[in-house]
DNA sequence: CCAGAAACTGTTACCGTTCACAAATAAGCA
DNA sequence: TGCTTATTTGTGAACGGTAACAGTTTCTGG
């Protein structure tokens, strides 16, 4: 073995200063900045300048570097960048693990806006909206170094948990009903409820019944408030509220009771899914919509126009809400910290279809 | 100024070896390992051992370190860890930016399973499923250093784009219909279609019509295949397929044509939303479901039981699909690379409700 | 009571990028 | 031309962890 030791520097054993570079893990590593620099005949710093579009690089040099990058299929390592800059260009979303139409649509609105701004989005969902799980979700995001957090936060537990995020962390809530002195983007739920209720009143109904969502959700409560307010203002009787979950099952259950009562001629539902359940309950009772009973919803889900009959409902643009939330967050990212970014409240609009009409009498 | 220069080493100006540490950016930095180590009176490596639950740390030492961590509110910097280990403990999801029920539910299934395994999930959505945007989405995830990718991939463009991911990257597709020699988790669409079609045939219908989804989606195609196969096997006439998007509007449009044809007594829809549209079309034509026309769907969305009438449909458990996909991905993460992980195919089951019945005649 | 093994802890060198500063080169002007 | 000022490039040293190895204890058992 010792016979061939004469070969010069190509034998690593003869280079005591450079111990053979051990392949760290099984995973083969792509090319890094140093490789690109060597190939282009420049320093790694120049490569860095090129990818960060620093102006002071000679055009000819930039070209050479770009060519090297291309030929090596170079991808910059974001983890290293994050470590050096303390900026991950990743945003966190605290979501609610369920199939509610609103939250999901927001996610896409947020993500596409984030992409446009050069951010990636990480999601941490929680099974229920109590304090503990939300806190853990936030923590998970923080550990992963997100630059900011958007909470799809229909309940106060979420925002209060968010106040435990580290000081510098920018946070925005979307949805809910804007409590807690927290920058929030939301639709004006009370206004939506007022529009819907007034619409039914104007049609000639003596009063309007309401099937609410879970009352510990500020959004559900705000809709109740708007509905009640409008009834008061019109001098109409305010019937008792029945509340339940946001789904058709709940709507069906409450709807059956309502449908049995012949004095009920108009029902405002806290969302479209509830309305679907009410529609079925009314139908089963033998009364007709809208002839005997008018029904309106809230949300304007994609298929609400194909219910039987097509549902009149309050429209809210969730994707837009998501975009606005992201814009707000991005604006706050630069700011010093404890400033006062105003809330964004978008107005809902009514989308009349055929599930509501004048009462028969 | 020079008068007080006699104070010993507390004056940084007298310590030429340690230049005053400049506060890097405006963002205040939390405590790091070094701080914890100093407070606990150990080396940073010991702190590292404690958070990584290395067995060889004396209980008393561990306690001290943990106390220090707690008192400093220490959070480990995942970016640094990622840089050192080449493992981000982040998974990427390539999603489809739309409000399709299936993909969304999968997201939650995946996320909760990922959380349990100690992974965070980042999403990159694409507006349309053509090659280019998908490629960019994958690239975005790769740059951010995800350890693996799950593609919610109903169309082949997605999986083919995925083959451009770097060599070591583990990938799994969920949904679609398992082409491309790619590890896939999916429901057996053809089987679901067979069950639904056979169910209607067994009820006594002479044949079954089909309103398909977009035929360039393998899932839609597989359902067409299963339906057609069953009809052939039963010796029934195979009516022409009408196809459209996955929504109620498409169902309504095709449904109107079908409803006008008195020979149509049974319709199998490619999903529940399409079925909703068909339901309305049949209703408007004056014919009744299920008395005159039977309708069945596919998916079993949460509110399908509240359609008019409640929809008989093929059930698929999307959340479960998501979990299975994640499990498969995790298993592949450890493996050498080009092995052969088998696909997972879960069987759908039929959920009969009241929208299908024996034909009248 | 001491050698050897096992358990524990510390030291140093990376991971791949950006930052601050220094050096070299090109340009502008008297 | 020679000097000053821009522009372009290069050189360490962070950033906050983990890996490998070396050093120090503390147990064993003969």
Describe the structure using short key phrases.
361 residues; 6-stranded parallel sheet; 15% strand; 6-stranded mixed sheet; homodimer; alpha/beta; DNA-binding
Element pattern of chain A in H and E: HHHHEHEHEHEEHEHEHEHEEHEE
The major β-sheet of chain A equals: 6 strands, parallel
Largest beta sheet: strand ordering of chain A: 2-1-3-4-5-11
Global Rg of chain A: 29 Å
Oligomer: homodimer
**Beginning-to-end CA distance, first to last residue of chain A:** 108 Å
Summarize model confidence as the mean pLDDT of chain A: 87
Largest interface chains and counts: A-B, 66 and 66 residues
The number of helical segments of chain A is: 12
Strand content of chain A: 5-15%
Total strand segments of chain A: 12
What does this entry look like structurally?
- The structure is a homodimer of 361-residue chains.
- The first copy, chain A, has helices at residues 33-40, 44-51, 59-72, 78-85, 101-116, 131-143, 156-162, 189-202, 218-233, 248-260, 272-284, 318-334, and strands at residues 90-96, 120-126, 148-152, 170-174, 184-187, 209-212, 242-243, 266-269, 294-299, 312-315, 344-346, 349-351.
- Chain A is of the alpha/beta class and 361 residues long.
- In chain A, the strands form 2 sheets. A 6-stranded parallel beta sheet of chain A has the order 2-1-3-4-5-11, with helices on both faces. In chain A, strands 7-6-8-9-10-12 form a 6-stranded mixed beta sheet, sandwiched between helices.
- The first copy, chain A, has 12 helices and 12 strands.
- Mean pLDDT of chain A is 87; it is low at 1-27.
- The longest helix of chain A is centred in the C-terminal third of the chain and has 17 residues, at 318-334.
- In chain A, strand 1 (90-96), helix 5 (101-116) and strand 2 (120-126) form a beta-alpha-beta unit.
- At the A-B interface, helix 4, helix 5, strand 2, helix 6 and helix 10 of A face helix 4, helix 5, strand 2, helix 6 and helix 10 of B.
- Strand 2 of chain A pairs antiparallel with strand 2 of chain B, so a sheet runs across the interface.
- Chain B binds a DNA duplex (30 and 30 nucleotides) through residues 22, 24, 29, 32-34, 42-46, 48-49, 52, 55-58, 61, 76-86.
């Amino acid at each position: 073995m010792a016979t061939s030791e004469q070969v010069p520097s190509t034998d690593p054993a003869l280079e005591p200063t450079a111990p053979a570079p051990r392949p760290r893990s099984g995973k083969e590593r792509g090319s890094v900045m140093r490789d690109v620099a060597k190939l282009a005949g420049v320093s790694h710093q120049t490569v860095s300048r090129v990818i960060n579009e620093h102006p002071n690089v000679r055009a000819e040099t930039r070209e050479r570097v770009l060519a090297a990058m291309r030929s090596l299929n170079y991808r910059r390592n974001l983890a290293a960048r994050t470590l050096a800059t303390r900026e991950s260009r990743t945003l966190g979303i605290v979501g609610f693990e369920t199939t509610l139409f609103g939250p999901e649509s927001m996610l896409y609105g947020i993500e596409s806006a984030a992409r446009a701004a050069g951010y990636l989005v990480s999601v941490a969902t929680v099974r229920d909206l109590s304090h503990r799980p939300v806190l853990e979700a936030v923590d998970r995001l923080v550990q992963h170094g997100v630059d900011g957090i958007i909470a799809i936060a229909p309940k106060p537990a979420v925002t209060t948990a968010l106040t435990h995020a580290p000081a510098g962390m920018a946070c925005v809530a979307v949805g809910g009903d804007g409590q807690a002195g927290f920058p929030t983007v939301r639709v004006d739920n009370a206004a939506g409820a007022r529009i819907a209720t007034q619409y039914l009143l104007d049609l000639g109904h003596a009063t309007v019944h309401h099937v609410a969502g879970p009352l510990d959700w500020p959004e559900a409560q705000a809709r109740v408030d708007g509905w009640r307010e409008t009834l008061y203002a019109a001098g109409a009787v305010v019937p008792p509220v029945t509340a339940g979950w946001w789904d058709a099952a709940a709507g069906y259950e409450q709807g059956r009771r309502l449908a049995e009562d012949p004095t009920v001629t108009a029902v405002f539902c806290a969302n479209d899914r509830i309305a679907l359940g009410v529609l079925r309950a009314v139908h089963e009772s033998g009364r007709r919509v809208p002839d005997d009973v008018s029904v309106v919803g809230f949300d304007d889900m994609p298929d609400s126009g194909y219910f039987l009959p097509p549902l009149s409902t309050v429209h809210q643009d969730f994707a837009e809400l998501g975009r606005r939330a992201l814009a707000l967050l991005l604006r706050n990212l630069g700011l010093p910290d404890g400033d006062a970014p105003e809330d964004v409240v978008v107005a809902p609009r009514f989308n009349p279809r055929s599930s509501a009409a004048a009462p028969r009498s």
